Amino acid sequence: MSGHAVVAAYHDLWTVEQSFRMSTSDLKARPIFHRTRESTEAHLTIVFAALAVSRVVQARTGVSIKKFLTRLAPLRSVVLRTGEQRHTIHPVIPNEATELLENLPGEGVH
Questions:
Q1: Measured on CA atoms in the order 56, 59, 60, 63, is the torsion positive or negative?
Q2: Whole-model pTM above 0.70?
Q3: Among 54, 68, 70, 75, which residue's Cα sits nearest to residue 99?
Q4: Run of H or E including 82
C-alpha cells in the first residue's frame, strides 16, 4: 500500500469515528435498551438515516449539523384556534437561516 493510500484510508477512518461522535451528541442518540432484535434494528435504522441526512446537510450548507440545528431550532410555526377558526402563524426566517435552507435540495424556503 502506498503512503498516499495509507493516508487516504486513515482519513476515511477518522470520518467514521467523527460520525459515531456526531450520532451520540449532535443527533441526541441515546443508548438503547430494546429487548427484541426488531426494535434494535429499527432504532439503528433511524440513527443511521439521521446520520445520512446530517452528512448531506453539512455537505450542502458548509456548517456543522450542530450549528445548523442551533440556527433553525427557534423557527417554529404556531397554530391558534379561536372558536371555529384556525390561524397558522409562521416564523420570520432570518437571512442567515434562509441562506442555509436554500443550499438544501427541494423547493427552498416557503
A1: positive
A2: no
A3: 68
A4: strand 78-82
